[in-house]
């Protein structure tokens, strides 16, 4: 999938907002885990992050199975 200049601008703006929010949450003492990537949304890293984060998400729900 090809990304456009507009896609990159939106991603850059979203990153600024997300990093700002992460900083505010950390200062407030929230137990926060972040892993910001450079670039635009691509399915390859969505899948990688889902595999990485699914156990944590399931544990937060109180179970270990989907």
Explain the overall architecture.
This protein is 64% helix and 0% strand. It is mainly alpha-helical. It is flat, with a radius of gyration of 15 Å. The termini are far apart.
Features of the shown structure:
0% strand; 66 residues; single chain; flat; mainly alpha
SSE map:
Blueprint: H1 5-27, H2 43-61
H/E element order: HH
Assembly state of the chains shown? single chain
Structural class: mainly alpha
Query: Given the structure, what is the number of helices?
Result: 2
Q: Which residue ranges are poorly predicted, with pLDDT under 50 across at least 5 consecutive positions? A: none
Question: What share of residues is helical?
Answer: 55-70%
Task: Provide a brief overview of the structure.
The protein is built from 2 helices and no strands. The chain has 66 residues and is mainly alpha-helical.
